[in-house]
Amino acid sequence: MAMKILFVCLGNICRSPAAEAVFLHKIRQKGLESEYIVDSAGTGPWHVGNSADARMKSAAKRRGINLVSIARQVKLDDFLYFDLMLTMDSDNHKSLESLSKTLNQDSNALVKPLLSYSKKTSILNVPDPYYGGDAGFENVLDLLDDACDGLLCDLIANK
Ligand code: 4NP
Fold it and tell me: Does 81 contact ligand 1 (Cβ within 6 A)?
């Protein structure tokens, strides 16, 4: 059965749609699309229905990665549907922990920081690039590339 993975940030227009697209790109390169169901969502409601931030889309496009997702907010059912919920920073992590406490059954999802899979860095937070310049978007993609490599290695090794 396919492993279901949800990438989570605050607005679902910068970091988590990029993480979703980077991971999708990697599994397509390896011919593993059928083994994973991948999505992203935000803990906040502000950008629901919007496509990803144009700056994030351009930065990803320069690396041959298309961001096509439309922002949505995390919902309670996500804790039942997904196997893994991968947060971009500790605020997202705390938001998911609080939300999961409102479930009236146990969550099926393991909630982890995406950067816990990184090989090149020990930081656990993907910096929010929204209010910064272009370099912030490149840095996010570098972090996501490394973490998604580590994630995929881990998933393949522990299948
Ligand atoms: P994201 O970035 O959580 O990576 O999608 C943000 C996008 C928008 C806002 C904050 C973070 N905002 O405050 O509108």
Answer: no
